[in-house]
Amino acid sequence: MLTTGFFPSSQLFHADAVMAGVFLYPYLFFVGIICFSFFLCVLLRSLAFRSAEIKAMERLGKIEQSSLLNSLQRFFRELSCSFQPSDEELQAQQKALELEHLQQQDADATAFGKRTASDQQADFELLQAIEQKERRRRERPLKVVELPADVVTSALSDEQYAALPDEVRLFANQEVASFVDRFRLLVMQFRLGSGDIVSLLQQLENDTYKELSTLSREVAQQEGHLQHELSVYTSRIVNGQQRLTGYIKFLEQALQDREEELQLQFQELKLIETKLEEDKHAAERYRKKP
Question: Does residue 49 sit in the same domain as residue 94?
Fold first, then answer.
């Protein structure tokens, strides 16, 4: 009650100041010790966890190895929400950046000194040869394979096409129209490009890649929807099977109970018939007596 403030301590002092002091001050002392112990537990746990993180980062090489005193100073700075680096850390970072910059300059100077005009010419010739090889590969004519007459292809006859559903024929017409429009666009771009087939092929490859990326995303999205619906239907089927199994077990148990009940009734009927036969024989013997 004193801890929560429901019972004021002034009433104790008004009643008996000596007893109130004897009781209240040790009580406050022990409460303070308990609260301070909780604070130390939380602080030590945080210190241990943070020191483990620092050691792990030092082993991975993300930060430089530091002494225990520096680790404690870093921990208390983080505890007090003081995330600004110290002057020593700033100087160390500045020295590291200057050293890295000097090493980069030395490496560039060394590489520039080693590279001669013949090396640059060789690199240029290599790049030119690669470009010519790629151009020849792109300009290579496509191979046309002629199939024999008896080979069955995916082409449909007029009767088969007429027997298709309306949705399928509409989709086929849309695809054919899209292909014709694309072919006309390619012809127009080829004419406007003064016969530059390389740039036209590059643009076609880019457009095809974009369409394939869009289709792959749509396919992945539809697969996700189908997987979700499949999981829902599977759970429904499993629940239905479980209910059906429980109902079958209930019917089997009911049939078994009914069969046992009929057997008991049949046994009772046998006993009644036996008793009636005995009574009948007893009555006949009684009538035969003089």
Answer: no
